Amino acid sequence: MIALLFPGQGAQAVGMGRALAERFPVAQETFDEANAVLGYDLARICFEGPAEALVATDVCQPAILATSVAAWRVAADRGLEGDLAMGHSLGDYSALVAAGAIGYPEALRLVAERGAAMHEAGLVCPGGMAALIGPTDAEAEALCAEAGEVWAANFNCPGQVVASGSAAGIERLLEIATTRRVRATRLAVGGAFHSPLMAAAAARLEPVLAAWTPLDPAPAFLSATTVGLEGPETLREVLLRQLLAPVRFGAAVEAALGMGVTRFVELGPGRVLCGLVRRVRRDAAISQVGEPEDLAALAVA
User: What is the pTM assigned to this prediction?
Assistant: First the structure.
């Protein structure tokens, strides 16, 4: 079984998708469609930057979606078929496009609204995120509780937990981590994602999600929020809850392995998810498609 993996915010880099678009018409068409739906030149920002524009939450999210869908379409044209689709946070939307549960234009509109809502919530309730390297999940949660106004937001893999919270709370967490000799790194993000401080974003996104009619995912969709297979009747609720709840990516990888997945293929910018999968299962078979040269090594089973 093959699991298709789609990255979330943080995977972006200036130049992403450009080589795919230059080489493959379906990739260029994917970016052209994004430009038309969104009403601005998203492709130019992806291909040329500036980095300051690409990192902005309201632009970054549709940019990663477009790049991921472009990579998936190119790989699918060359025979890649998945038995399971899954993503990391924002990557859920790319996974649902690949699973046919949502059309690409509608996904672009939803993600644009999601990014704008999260950006606005970050202005209303300023916050940040920090990666904790080394502690167990329980130890990381204890550090967050001690800091106050901080919550475990991403359980990425054994020994890597991302915390999210108020600006003051993250400062306290970093101080505590230094005292306890726990490696901690502040992340360059625009808010306290996957925490209660995103309540305003959830309220703004709820009516937009309510207007969407999900289709049955095929291949199946595995949520890293619930760590379970989700269908049309629960997708709106899951994507709304996702804004406030932690991403349990490591547990989702374990669940995929338990379902019989033998190979993971990451589609989109960066190789972050491949690295996380390897931290969960050292001998896992992984591939990544983000550049044309990646296709040569993609031995489709």
Answer: 0.95
